[in-house]
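Question: Hello, beginner here. Any chance you could explain the protein record under this note? Any guidance would be welcome.
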Amino acid sequence: MTPAERQSAVAFALRNLLLDDRQPGPPALQAASDFMAGRRQAEALSDQARRLEAKADALTDALFLRTILICQRPWASEGDLDELRAIHRRLLPSLPEERVLRRPQPDDDASLYPATMLEQGAAAIGQELAAERNLASLDRPVFVERLAHYYDELSYLHPFADCDGMTLRIFLSRLSHDAGWDLDWGRADPTAHRRAVRRALRGNTDDLQTLIAGMVRPVNPTRIFLIAGWDQGPAH
């Protein structure tokens, strides 16, 4: 990774945690600083994350370091439950398989997709995404609307019992980048983000679209601005 890519990975990892009200501690922040400066390699970061995960009070630090590593270690980008699982496994590699997916509980949240049908629900979302060519070559307003739709659908699906939101944001960032747009999660206020997701689950994605519109940036700004214009996308 270049210095700029390392800095971007650390910034994303920190924001992804903060959006879930998690804050890494000084040791993890120092390790991230060393990584940005090139004083610590990815393997050392991975080793530290493994040591931290063993401590009951240091899971957030381990998640922070692993999110940084996720930014430089790609996986098969199929847009389906297998991709979500691959991301989730990188965040929580020690989690037993039987605890990965959300399981039916007596007090299940009725606002979420039935836990017994996660495989079917994920398959339907994956098929819908594939039919839309994974949102590639869309003008900006259309991309914002469709990404908000899928963020809502995935939030409703809520496939994972732990780190679900973090996993979804990593997936959406990958999806957006491949479609020609980057998401600046640093522009998302945590309170506004939670409110937008909750309102979307109740059927109104307006706030979610506004949130995403404030984060979307073209991967190739020179082409967008000089050839297409701000509201037109990679197809132009």
User: Anything to note?
Assistant: The mean pLDDT is 90.
